[in-house]
Design a protein that fits this description.
The chain is built from 14 helices and 5 strands. By secondary structure, the chain is of the alpha/beta class.
Length: about 300
């Protein structure tokens, strides 16, 4: 049962980390970068929220664990031995992730699932000292990436998912006066344009020591291959993640979507009550990019007006 209220306390320095945000917003990139830290285990997405209703079914549970065994490059029998027959998806996830972080000699684990930002209260009810990082990207570029992937291309469908992730995360923190010790928001544009600054802020939030390698990303092609092996599908996100860190995707919406098509999407977001938030995020993008251009990031010239 998802978010039953059974608390799992952990020392603050070993508390689990959850990354969430709208699909195609850079959540996988942040996960991969944090995995370079000596204390953080950050493997592939476990899809734990999708397993909540199926974990009590022995065959469904086994299928999930078998897939995770491939994702995390561990023999299934070893992974199966590491977990008991708990019927809560939280308990199973906790056992799996602790097994994996111990295997790799890490102090704490990081889990990335987009809808984590819609389940912050549930997360904190089980892992009371958990930290949640919400990655936010310019919604125009998010939509452009989804168009390229031929997923959720209809404006109303895109808006629905965006509201359930970005909207949910912003509503959660807004209801708490804009700040909470368990919540940190990271802009994708800042991560790729100023990776050292962004990662320093993240590590400070997590109370982890600075390690320069975390801000240097050269690509993870092995993640793409493992997911393809486990699912038979080629993930566009992981295919892109196989490449080094780049800012070339900032402003890509102009050539992929265009203003006319984006206007239709924006109308759906406004209808859902998020026009002001969209304005704020676009303004934040402009500010981040202007600062980067001023500092000599010439590669942005072709992407920004």
């Amino acid at each position: 049962m998802l978010c039953s209220g059974n608390e799992r306390d952990a020392p603050e320095s070993n508390a689990p980390v959850f990354i969430g945000g709208m699909f195609k917003s850079g959540t996988s990139l942040l996960r991969a970068m944090l995995g370079r830290h000596s204390r953080l285990f950050a493997g592939l997405e476990t899809q734990w929220l999708a397993e909540a209703a199926r974990v009590s079914n022995p065959s469904e549970r086994r299928a999930w664990l078998e897939r995770l065994a491939i994702f995390f490059d561990v023999p299934y029998p070893r992974l199966q031995q590491a977990v008991d027959d708990a019927l809560q998806v939280e308990a199973t996830l906790d056992q799996v992730m602790n097994f994996l972080r111990r295997r790799d000699g890490k102090a704490r684990w990081v889990e990335k699932t987009p809808y984590n930002v819609a389940k912050i209260d549930c997360i904190l009810s089980y892992w009371s000292s958990a930290k949640v990082i919400h990655v936010v990207r310019d919604p125009r570029d998010v939509y452009a990436s989804l168009v390229e992937s031929e997923k959720w291309t209809k404006p109303a469908v895109f808006a629905g998912h965006w509201c359930k992730t970005v909207g949910a995360g912003r509503n959660w923190i807004g209801a708490r006066g804009g700040t909470h010790p368990a919540y940190h928001e990271l802009r994708y544009e800042k991560l790729v344009l100023f990776p050292e600054v962004a990662i320093r802020e993240v590590l400070t939030f997590l109370d982890e020591p600075w390690e320069p390698e975390v801000a240097r990303f050269y690509g993870r092609p092995q993640d793409f291959e493992r997911v393809k092996l486990a699912t038979g599908k080629a993930s566009p996100t992981l295919k892109r993640l196989a490449q080094p860190l780049t800012d070339s995707r900032i402003g890509a919406w102009r050539s992929i979507v265009g203003q006319e098509r984006w206007t239709l999407v924006r109308a759906e977001l406004a209808r859902a009550g998020y026009d002001a938030l969209v304005n704020t995020l676009i303004a934040e993008t402009d500010t981040i990019c202007a600062e980067a251009k001023e500092m000599g990031c010439a590669s942005l010239v072709e992407h920004r007006p």
